[in-house]
From TrEMBL:
Keyword Oxidoreductase listed: yes
EC number(s) on file: 1.2.1.44
Protein name as it appears in the record: Cinnamoyl-CoA reductase protein
Keyword annotations of the record: Oxidoreductase
Source superkingdom: Eukaryota
Provenance organism: Dioscorea alata
Length: 357
């Protein structure tokens, strides 16, 4: 009976960092399934959270709470009365951070601790913590060629040595969450999404937006033909709800649907959008690890085709105001390129004409 009570529709759940990419889709999904959502944001009055208020049934089923992960009392207030908590909030840097301890590690680790302590105090029935595959993949000791699963963890010392601070923050936060769960008899499930793409409906760009736009513009810093595991943001939201509602869900789940190299991503995009400045002459690299989401699939998780994700992503970027400059500039570049080709063609005709004469 207790398990049934946790998953019944209409119950209250809390989502941290609700204005973010994954969390926004999760909030939308939860409301559509009849949940009442307590959504934490830094500032409920900020326009970047306005998309949440426009969701269908938001006026009845959504309440925004001003909260800071480093402020335990604000988390406690937001989660009060909730049967479940989805801890999604975590800083994702788009550039190198000058102070990784203060800007990444402390918010991730201390913030997660505050959420879990609040959940214990409130006797929350299940906590779903969003981690990342970066807490899985950076393991120099993992046997080469062996598919990575939930038993594989990134090595914290290797993360420090290589200054992969985001990897370190997510690894420490997730490991600490599962340790806390065991020691305090708290039901915690973690989900590790890979590279998350898909349509946006929040009004601010994020890391994955820049990842895909830079591919379209040919501005990727790395020209390595690396392997990525790409997952649709809507499929991530489905996974989070699935592990919350399934009583048998436990510990850790990798959420990574499509292993694909950058060259294949470019070829797929070019087949639909042929006029962008894609990278050419990519170099092959040997360090590629495959991951499996078999554990999550056995729970009932399904994912959509990658081409659908890529097209939906690009089309949503076209619609958003923050990409207007890019698309206008791209169109101008295409028109200018067309004029240059036309001019070059006329010049060639004149030269060939002189040769004939």
């Amino acid at each position: 009976m207790e398990e049934e009570a946790r998953v019944k529709k209409g119950s209250r759940v809390c989502v941290t960092g609700a204005g973010g990419f994954v969390a926004s889709w999760l909030v939308k999904l939860l409301i559509s399934h009849g949940y009442h959502v307590h959504a934490t944001v830094r500032d409920p009055c900020d326009n970047k959270n306005s998309h949440l208020k426009k969701l269908e049934n938001a006026s009845e089923n959504l309440q925004l709470f001003k909260a800071d992960l480093l402020d335990y009392d604000s988390i406690l207030a937001a989660a009060a009365g909730c049967e479940g908590v989805f801890h999604v909030a975590s800083p994702v840097p788009t550039t190198k951070v000058p102070n990784p301890e203060a800007q990444l590690i402390s918010p991730a680790v201390t913030g997660t601790q505050n959420v879990l302590k609040a959940c214990s105090a409130l006797r929350v029935k299940r906590v779903v913590v969003v981690s990342s595959v970066v807490a899985v993949t950076l393991n120099p000791h993992w046997p080469k060629g062996k598919v990575m699963d939930e038993e594989c963890w990134s090595d914290p010392e290797h993360c420090r040595m290589t200054e992969n601070w985001y990897y370190l923050a997510k690894t420490l936060a997730e490991a600490d969450a599962l340790k806390y769960a065991k020691e305090n008899d708290l039901d915690v499930v973690t989900v590790c999404p890979s590279m998350v793409l898909g349509p946006l409906f929040q009004p601010t760009a994020n890391f994955s937006t820049l990842f895909l736009i830079n591919i379209l513009k040919g501005l990727r810093e790395s020209k390595e033909n690396r392997l990525y595991h790409i997952v649709d943001v809507r499929d991530v939201a489905d996974a989070l709800l699935l592990v919350y509602e399934k009583p048998e869900a436990s510990r850790r789940y990798i959420c990574a649907s499509h292993p694909i190299k950058i060259r294949e991503v470019i070829d797929t995009l070019r087949s639909v959008y042929p006029n962008y400045s894609y990278l050419n002459n990519l170099t092959e690299v040997d360090y590629d690890h495959l991951m499996t989401s078999e554990k999550l699939k056995k729970l009932g998780w399904k994912c959509r085709p990658l081409k659908e994700t890529l097209i939906n992503s690009v089309e949503s970027y076209k619609e958003e105001w923050y990409c207007t400059h890019f698309w206008k500039k791209t169109k101008r570049n295409q028109e200018e390129s067309g004029r240059k080709k036309e001019k070059s063609g006329r010049k060639k005709e004149r030269v060939e004409g002189k040769r004939v004469d």
